[in-house]
Design brief:
This protein is α+β, with helices and mostly antiparallel strands. 16% of the residues lie in helices and 36% in strands.
Length: 94
């Protein structure tokens, strides 16, 4: 996502990375901005996920802004992630 498209307070869909989350388990969150993440010593997207009662960091998740009505219930699956990676790598070769 382009940095200029990020707006503090925007709603996002997020799939945290971790063994406790199943493929496709996706939550609605609120983008808090790029905040200092001590583990990496730099700023990172911070997303508040009320359902989990915690902040999920961009570097530990896959996420996208809710821009259309259909995005509200969208699931982020391994297949979606693989397709996004293919697009990125194919675009890098141009």
């Amino acid at each position: 996502m382009n940095q200029c498209e990020r707006k503090v307070g925007m709603l996002v869909r997020v799939h945290p990375v971790g063994d406790e989350f199943e493929d496709g388990e996706t939550f609605t969150g609120v983008y808090l901005g790029d905040l200092y993440y001590e583990v990496y010593g730099e700023n990172n997207p911070a997303i508040l996920v009320p359902e989990l009662n915690r902040i999920v960091w961009g570097c530990k998740s896959w996420w996208f802004p809710i821009q259309e009505e259909g995005d509200k219930d969208a699931k982020i699956t391994g297949e979606c992630i693989a397709a996004a990676c293919r697009e990125i790598f194919e675009g890098a070769g141009e």
